[in-house]
Amino acid sequence: MSNSSSNSFPDPAEIAKDHGKPYPPQEQGLGGTPDVIPDVPTCAVFLFLFLLAAAGHMGLFRINLSRGKKFVLSGMMFGFCFTRIMATLLRIVWSVYPKSVKIGLAAMIFVYAGIILLFIANLFFTQRLVRAQHPHVGWSKPFSIALPILLFIIIGSIIALIVGVIYSFYTLNEESLSAIRDIQIYGETLYAIVAFLPIPIVLISCAGRYFNKNRRTVDKFGSGKMRSKVAIILISAFFLDLGACWRAATLYLPVTASTNPQTPWYFTKPCFYVFNFGIEICVTFAWLALRIDKRFFIPNGAKGPYSYAGGFTFAGEPGNEKIALGNRDSMRHLTGSQASGFGGSGRVSWGGSRASLGHSSRVSWGGISREDVSTGLGEDGFQPVPYGAFEEDDPQGTTAADVGVSGAEAEMGWDPRSGRWALRPVSSTVHLARPTTARSAV
């Protein structure tokens, strides 16, 4: 660190020593120490915006929960907004008391701790997209354990980063400060890598599906087109990585003493607000407006290839939702016998769990759908969504709507030979007419 003998500004180490613990920073950082103008009005605007975003995401979380749809990522977005509310509040207080090192330290911690939640959410979106486009690859053990391992690394790195930042305010040892700076460089570089990961993963997944001539049906999930989901992930990853790369790049540049009256342009306040709060609030509101809770929703308990199934849930799986049906009717046809189904052919099984679907030579029934069961165009332009109901002897078949179910509960079966879903009505609060042979079988 430069000292007063070779520079026109005081030695920051001497000032820190005279100040006492916690010591003020000895080098400049992105945004610097806030001032009443322009930081207070700027932070007040961001505070208001993040309050609105937090209310929006928590409101959607509560509404979905009341409808039996638990979209945890909305809760995660609320948690992120909370960290930003605290960060903006602390910067406002810090601007009023600029010499308070403790307030500055708290503000820095909340800035460090929040952004990673957006990266993690985008990784979950990416994982769901890959599992929808390539079910057997996306649900394979290597791909399935990759995200938990990455989350473990991220959490450990965040803890190390926060501990390092706190310790830097309580030591003047140059070797310790140098090691802490290395930790900061590592942490910000990891942030940049994690923010960038969805881009190559999604591009490879889409390219693999496009060039694979033997590709199977997309395991459609949520609402909206698959190309819209791809666009949301890629655009979000681009801007989130832009901010992460900016923060990482400033740490690789030469150190500037905190007592130096000249602040490099890349450390200025506009850069801080644009590449931190500015990008984050845009992504947060975009996800809220685009209803990620609908687009990226998957059934509770979904596990294994083709378990998203356009909103289907399966019997016998943890977290299986049965809120739309009564307790008695929700269990009917979902567990128990393997009696024959339509036509008394003995080739349609009832109540089979999804674990056995891929190994059976007959249609296995055992799930319910509360999504619209009318026929529509699929993601690739020619698949019906949900896939048209059929019997093994009647490939054309009819949709569930044709047999009395209009946009509500239908039971699902998987035909491993055709690789498609079959639909049939299930008993609910309204007793639907069934073929005589099927009624006697149940």
Automatic annotation (TrEMBL):
The keyword Membrane applies. The chain crosses the membrane at residues 44-65, 77-97, 103-125, 145-170, 190-211, 231-252, 272-290. Keywords: Membrane, Transmembrane, Transmembrane helix. Residues 1-28 are annotated as: Disordered. InterPro entries: DUF3112. The keyword Metal-binding does not apply. This is Uncharacterized protein. It comes from Salinomyces thailandicus.
